[in-house]
Amino acid sequence: MTTGPHPAPPTLTGGGGAAPPRLWFIDNLRILLTSLVVLHHVAVGYSGLPLWYYNEPPTSTAAGYALSAFLMLNQSWFMGAFFLLSGYFTPGSYDRKGFGPFLRERLVRLGIPLAVFSFVLNPLLLVPAFPGGSPLEFYLATIGSGPLWFVLALLVLDVCYATVRRLTERRPPSTRPLTPGAVAAFVVGLALVTYALRVVLPVGTGVPIIDFPTISYLPQYVSFFVLGTVAYRRGWLRSMSGRTGWAGLALAAGSTVVFLPLALSGGLEAWLGGGTLSSLWYALWDSSFAVGVVLALLTFLHRRMDRQGPLRRYLSAHAFTVYVIHAFVVTALGYALSGLAWPTPAKAALVAVVALPACFALAGPVRRLPGVRRVL
């Protein structure tokens, strides 16, 4: 998504004038993040949480807990990473296009997939749940962004960024390095704001009007997007050292050892929010974990995987398409295998092994449809 997996090559290259060398390691990170989106929604469908188009109760309590733990760890950082990458490529795109063309391009690349999914594809995915009665009332009730809530959020952030740039003078690039003190201050600030929001909007609270399934992570999403724009101007992603990666790994591991047990010790629900001490520990954990994992991954991929062959180039080019179509693939497989009496871990693994390559394989023909490549 450059809107997540990959909304558009223009947001994947650098700033004003000639584009700088392509950051292949970021393309590789997008492949990883997009794959996690598919696996995340496979896990949701078998976790016992009624949050997906096809849901199947787990065959054991242990299986349900295991899938929920995967979802918790995944949710704590991977969408924030998408917002960070999207924010990183936003200033360069604006520099090249200017206010009007930038917004028009975003409306095409983000607005059209969002509208098609919300008004056509999301209602179709919910047809199996039709309870009878008025088809029109059912259709109106099923209009929604579904997993494309991210695209909606990114469109709003792009409009905000363009408005701020329109009203302020452009600042020249800065070479100020990323310091441990700045990272620590960011983590603490993010944790406190997240804790405060969860006093009124605990983890799991939905906002039906805009379909945000994880509104309690809004501070992370917005701050990571802003951080991405700052990282672009200061060249941070091109200059991260190996020590930064190890520090990020230590931060993620240390917070998991210290803060996560403290958060969970208060009970199964105390960590969700409501101003409890457990929710403060949880906010400190997921803020630290998110920042640490992203720093570690960016550094590792920059040093070890800053290149692509034909396969990874294909996967990268089709990442956003996978993000848009994966709900159909995962849901169709769920219904197709509904009669298979396997234990939940085996069944979820089977769906994951089939769904992930199927999504990327199907993305190619979808993008070759007339007019689709201009959008996806």
Number of domains: 2
Uncertain segments of ≥5 residues (pLDDT<50)? 1-18
Shape: globular
Give the overall pLDDT as a whole number.
90
Main β sheet profile: none
Distance between the termini: 10 Å
Assembly form of the protein: single chain
The number of helical segments is 13
Strand residue content: under 5%
Structural class, by secondary structure, is mainly alpha
- Specify the helix fraction band: 55-70%
Total count of strands: 0
Order of helices and strands: HHHHHHHHHHHHH
Radius of gyration: 21 Å
What does this structure look like?
This is Acyltransferase 3 domain-containing protein. It is a single chain. This protein is mostly helical and 376 residues long. It is 67% helix and 0% strand. The longest helix is centred in the last third of the chain and has 28 residues, at 277-304.
Name its key features.
2 domains; disordered N terminus; 376 residues
Short description:
The chain crosses the membrane at residues 31-53, 65-89, 110-130, 136-157, 178-197, 217-234, 246-268, 280-301, 322-342, 348-366. The protein is mostly helical.
Helices and strands in order:
Blueprint: H1 24-46, H2 61-75, H3 78-97, H4 99-125, H5 135-142, H6 149-167, H7 180-200, H8 218-234, H9 242-264, H10 277-304, H11 310-317, H12 319-336, H13 344-367
InterPro entries: Acyl_transf_3_dom (IPR002656), Glucan_succinyl_AcylTrfase (IPR050623)
Organism: [Actinomadura] parvosata subsp. kistnae
Keywords: Membrane, Transmembrane, Transmembrane helix
